[in-house]
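Troubleshooting: if your tokenizer reports a length mismatch, compare your output against this known-good record of 363 residues.
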Amino acid sequence: MSGTDEPGLAQSFRRLIAQHGPIPVARYMGESNGRYYASRDPLGAAGDFTTAPEISQMFGEMVGLWLADIWVRASRPANALYVELGPGRGTLARDALRAMASQGWRPDVHLVEGSPALRTLQSQALAGAELHDTIDTLPENRPIFLVANEFLDALPIRQLVMTERGWRERMVALDERDEFVFAAGPNPMDDAVPQAQRAAQPGTIIETCPAAAALVDALARRIDAQGGAALFIDYGHLSARTGSTLQALKRHEKVDVFAAPGGMDLTAHVDFATLRDIVSRAGLATATATQGAWLEAMGIGLRAQALATRSPAQAKDIASAHERLVHPEAMGDLFKVLAFSARDWPRGAGFDEGPSDRRKESQ
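Known-good structure output:
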């Protein structure tokens, strides 16, 4: 959507708040991102952010090899599907599918994407892919091998804030200058807060993402019933945290979360600890790791060496991309990986579930 359209959503929010009172953070984030993603390609130098698949083909190749390894050890089910949530330009799928083909697997491709602008790019990159608005229309009688990279972080979060009067929902309101501000809602929300956190200091903020929880629960149950595996990669945390993680990106820079509703990318850290608990409650085994540790365990270092040997002129760029993906101070520790597979199916490679896994959980 063009810059002239972006203030339209801000004015709609102002009218709504003036007439009916403050709106929840979840509504502000959900409607803003709905407008944002519906009309543009946000990726790359000309967009607002760059994701790991756009940094290097190695990322998608490691994902594809992870999926192919499970597929092979599951006796190569011929009807298994490749499913991706929020596939962007189709770059990750293209690289993953190439790696999967090297192992003799060429699955049907199903993409879950709501953005018309990105659907056009995906159709161009992945001829024959079937597109879906939601997971509800995915085939129900075939194993699912699912990938979601930087998908969950854009789902709307709910924020609760501790006040002198107890817990309240965090809302978006207007100040005396008609500017957006955060405010505590009027209704007590103590019952929505875990018992261990109810006595927190005033000003403490906790976040939940009901949409992510519902999605992961539904996928865990479907994969358990149909067979397959799932891999979620996103920035977030592996243990419980407090504080607001809501942020906005525009032209590769962080901006105020109220700067341009509908014209910037709003995201929040993914609570992998909660999502892992949800999958475990569904009866499936799970694994988590930092992105850097997982990629290194999958062999990205060897792949970088092979690519550099094949293309010496690109060796510096390849090394830089490798560093960016795995280094703790770049994407390596900030981004986390959650994996699970159906009961009685092989576990995914690249995860250490021994003592070192407990060490990773503290990050």
